[in-house]
């Protein structure tokens, strides 16, 4: 998700009305669940998810991408966090493509009362929290997030926020500051509760797109790169290291989502592309069945969006037309007698009775610093009814930019530990069993604690069937000890 500049007077007036009604280390864990678990996922439903996802990623870019997800894949994750004093629980979408954290607030008459699977949604009320505060227009955070002064916003007036997305959806309201509760790791597979103060959006109105009961959650937890993200805020106060990792279990579901210094397993890293809004990395070659595709160097360097966007919220993998065509042609050349058919006017499918891993080539993507990403046939070919369909999607043909967009989602990221190091502006991955444990370093003692995937408590309002979960693990730094202060 990416924020647009607010430029319409009508929206500004609506925001003012919302504001007017509102005025009067150690390691840690946030439990995260997979939104689509326990439901029958169709190509159309996952296509709609990916389409909205990419439009949010590509705000301001004329590239409406179509696509769908594998019926057995992970597409969207949400976290259970506590906010306020006393703390109340909220279910928020974990989004690496946006920066602002926001939850729906009391008084929002356009917000749904129930979400998917009948989940009863919560509404934040600052007046019910002993630690809740309004954020004024004079606050430095307000100035930074709005890139300077905002017309009509000054002094002690409430600072408003507007998250507008490329698909036309939006959430608007005002900023508040409060304590966010999450679990800290106290030992191997052991946690205790901890908290940190975070500025986040208090949503007062939503577009129709965000009101759908099938998709509704309490809000969004942005894990983007900017200083306004929860990660950046906690890091600036010395609470966390500006690093996080995820490991999505494509076999059993769930996995691990971690913030902190992951030291086991070891991960090879490559530099993030500078001056990009998302987590982009430079690809250098594509290998199919141990043969490099004959692609020119400019294929990997041209285009508005530099490099490959790494995004666990996307289901499939989207490639520029200049890569997609040769890649699919090479894959299908291994079985020249296949009878291809098109599903839903855009998905290339076929009947095949043998083992896809024996009959089709593996694909390797190569990146700078000798980092590679291997994708086996059973990962890029997904079953649909009595067919197998190709998971690679063509991002060309729908854009004026012939170089198009490259996005790697769960199709290639599952069963891999992906590590984001924002302190060194690098990212990396390694193949891994995501149902096992990883090692997270305690920055105070230097010891390494084991953490692994867990399910949400059966006492939650979610059913056990819905609880294909993973942990969002946060490595906290004790500010005073880490800096040698009393």
From TrEMBL:
Membrane-crossing segments per the record? none
Any idea where the Peptidase A1 domain is? Answer: 77-430
Q: Which residues form the signal peptide?
A: 1-24
Q: Source organism's superkingdom?
A: Eukaryota
Pfam families named among the record's database cross-references: TAXi_C, TAXi_N
What keywords are annotated for this sequence in UniProt? Answer: Aspartyl protease, Glycoprotein, Hydrolase, Protease, Signal
Q: Which PROSITE patterns match?
A: PEPTIDASE_A1 (PS51767)
- State the InterPro entries in the record: Aspartic_peptidase_A1, Pepsin-like_plant, PEPTIDASE_A1, Peptidase_aspartic_dom_sf, TAXi_C, TAXi_N
Which protein family is it in?
Belongs to the peptidase A1 family.
Query: Which PANTHER family does this entry report, sorted A to Z?
Result: ASPARTYL PROTEASES, EUKARYOTIC ASPARTYL PROTEASE FAMILY PROTEIN
Name used for this protein in its record: Peptidase A1 domain-containing protein
Q: Which organism is it from?
A: Datura stramonium (Jimsonweed)
């Amino acid at each position: 998700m990416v924020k647009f500049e607010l430029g319409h007077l009508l929206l500004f007036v609506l925001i003012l009305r919302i504001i007017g009604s509102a005025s009067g280390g150690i390691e840690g864990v946030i439990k995260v669940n997979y939104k689509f678990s326990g439901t029958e996922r169709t190509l159309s439903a996952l296509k709609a998810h990916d389409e909205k996802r990419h439009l949010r990623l590509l705000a301001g870019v004329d590239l409406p991408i179509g696509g769908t997800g594998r019926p057995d894949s992970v597409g969207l994750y949400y976290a259970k966090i506590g906010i306020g004093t006393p703390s109340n629980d909220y279910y928020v979408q974990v989004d690496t493509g946006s920066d602002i954290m926001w939850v729906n607030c009391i008084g929002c008459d356009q917000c749904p009362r129930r979400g998917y699977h009948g989940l009863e949604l919560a509404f934040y009320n600052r007046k019910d929290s002993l630690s809740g505060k309004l954020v004024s227009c004079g606050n430095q955070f307000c100035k930074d997030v709005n890139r300077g002064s905002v017309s009509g916003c000054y002094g002690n007036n409430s600072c408003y926020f507007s998250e507008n997305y490329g698909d036309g959806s939006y959430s608007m309201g005002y900023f508040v500051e409060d304590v966010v509760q999450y679990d800290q790791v106290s030992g191997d597979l052991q946690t205790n509760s901890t908290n940190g103060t975070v500025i986040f959006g208090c949503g007062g109105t939503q577009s129709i797109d965000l009101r759908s009961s099938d998709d509704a959650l309490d809000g969004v937890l942005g894990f983007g790169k900017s200083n306004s993200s929860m990660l950046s805020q906690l890091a600036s106060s010395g609470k966390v290291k500006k690093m996080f990792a995820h490991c999505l279990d494509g076999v059993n579901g769930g996995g691990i989502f971690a913030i902190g210094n992951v030291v086991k397993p070891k991960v090879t890293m490559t530099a993030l592309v500078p001056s990009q809004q998302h987590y982009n990395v430079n690809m250098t070659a594509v290998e199919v069945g141990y043969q490099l595709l004959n692609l020119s160097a400019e294929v990997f360097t041209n285009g508005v969006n530099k490099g490959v966007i790494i995004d666990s919220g996307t289901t499939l993998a989207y490639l520029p037309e200049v890569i997609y065509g040769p890649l699919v042609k090479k894959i299908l050349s291994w079985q020249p007698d296949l009878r291809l058919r098109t599903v839903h006017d855009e998905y290339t499918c076929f009947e095949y009775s043998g083992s896809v891993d024996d009959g089709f080539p593996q694909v390797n993507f190569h990146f700078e610093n000798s980092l590679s990403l291997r994708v086996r046939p059973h990962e890029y070919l997904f079953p649909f009814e009595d067919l197998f369909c190709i998971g690679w999607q063509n991002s060309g043909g729908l854009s004026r930019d012939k170089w198009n967009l490259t996005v790697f989602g769960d199709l290639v990221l599952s069963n891999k530990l992906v590590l984001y190091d924002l302190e060194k502006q690098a990212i990396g991955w390694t193949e891994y069993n995501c149902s096992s444990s990883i090692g997270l370093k305690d920055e105070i003692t230097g010891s390494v604690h084991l953490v692994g995937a867990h399910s949400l408590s059966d006492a939650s309002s979610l059913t056990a069937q819905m609880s294909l979960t993973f942990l969002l693990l946060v490595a906290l730094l004790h500010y005073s000890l880490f800096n040698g202060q009393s």
